[in-house]
Amino acid sequence: MNASEDRGVWLYAVMPEAGASALGGLTGVSAEHPRAVTAGTLVAVVGDVPLSSFGEEALRRNLEDLDWLATVARAHDTVIAALVERGPVAPVRLATVYHDDGSVRVAVEQRAADFERTLEHVSGRVEWGVKAFLQIEPEPARPVKSGEGAGAAYLARRRRALASSEERQWHAAEQASHIHAALSELAADACTHPPQSRALTDQDGPMVLNGAYLVDAERAEQFAETVDSCDRDSALLTVTLTGPWPPYSFSSLEEP
Amino acid sequence: MTVPARAGNRNVALIDLLDRVLAGGVVVSGEITLSIADVDLVQVSLRTLITSITALQPHHE
Q1: CA angle in degrees (0–180, nearest 5) for A37-A41-A44
Q2: Cβ contacts of residue A167 below 8 Å, gap of 6+?
Q3: For residues A186 and A211, what is the distance between their CA atoms, to the nearest angstrom?
Q4: 3-state SS of chain A?
Q5: B38-56 vs A66-84: helix crossing angle, rounded to 10
Q6: Cis (ω within 30 of 0) for the bond into A244?
Q7: Which of A41, A157, A203, A253 has an alpha carbon 20 to 30 Å from A86's alpha carbon atom?
Q8: Closest Cα of chain B to A121: distance in Å?
Q9: pLDDT by residue (tens digit) across A77-90?
């Protein structure tokens, strides 16, 4: 299909040619059916999207609309997650749009060696997310002491609370770094995302780890069990597992 | 902890998804979106998120 003037080509992912057959069942960001564009030994999975919504100006506007962004992000992810079932996939960042198939082909062929290396890196592996949150401190028992002035007692309590809060933060950071190290040992690759704002998470305490781990498929159980035991063993942190994710966090084309 | 089900039936938190689709994935220059730099895109979207969530919870300080 040739892109006409008012349509653009949305790029979802790049994969080896063998994996990209029978894309018909998928539904994309614009309710279109994604299709394959061959680029050498690689295939770009793309969708035809109207520029009235996905052109540069429209994108800028629409990205400010949370409902639009959420719908498109989920559709982009759904297509990529379905592709992962068929073989190694290099997901492409949200909102990468071309004028036509020819431009997609050129862009992929120019970076073919980088794509090949990325696909090899993620092949047979799955991304898992692990987040750790500092648990909210339980209310300290009110000390009942006679012979101490109320003001002095208050100040002493405040000092202890502050010291214990700093100590908790410090221990939390240390535990988070141990957990990250232990999980990285099980992973082929690991990285961290910036902690999410407390307003955006479903936890009361601050996030102290937002890690991503690229794990061999056959080690999934072991990885999940390790996350589980990190959660159980820590009185300070709540540790949660998300995924499996397509390898979003491990698809940089830079030399690892 | 059981290993969560694979694609198809995933219940994915939007914020975790945005961490990945806006900051992860291969960055290739799209022709049409050339001027939407990756960093800008993340900031735009996170600003949107925070604004929207604040707007949804006016009583929640």
Answers
A1: 30
A2: none
A3: 13
A4: CCCCCCEEEEEEEEEEHHHCCCCCCCCCCCCCCCEEEEECCEEEEEEEEEHHHHCHHHHHHHCCCHHHHHHHHHHHHHHHHHHHCCCCCEEECCCCEECCHHHHHHHHHHCHHHHHHHHHHHCCEEEEEEEEEECCCCCCCCCCCCCCCHHHHHHHHHHHHHHHHHHHHHHHHHHHHHHHHHHHHHCCEEEECCCCCHHHCCCCCCEEEEEEEEEEHHHHHHHHHHHHHHHHHCCCEEEEEEEEECCHHHCCCCCC
A5: 120
A6: yes
A7: A253
A8: 13
A9: 999 999 998 999 99
Give pLDDT, residue B27.
Answer: 82
* Surface of A (113-132) touching B: CB under 8 A: 115, 118, 129, 131
Q: What is the pLDDT of residue A253?
A: 66
Q: How confident is the model at residue B61, as a pLDDT?
A: 35
Burial degree of A85 (CB within 10 A; 0-12, 13-18, 19+): exposed
CA dihedral A40, A44, A45, A50 (to 10 degrees): -120
pTM flag (> 0.95) = no
Query: Residue A134: what residue type?
Result: L
Judged by DSSP in three states, B26 sits in strand
- Amino acid at site A165: S
Interchain CB contacts (distance < 8 Å): A and B: 157
* A93/B16 CB distance under 8 A: no
Is any Cβ of chain B less than 8 angstroms from the Cβ of A81? yes
A137 touches B: beta carbon within 8 Å = no
Q: Residue A87, class by beta-carbon neighbours within 10 Å (0-12 exposed, 13-18 middle, 19+ buried)? A: middle
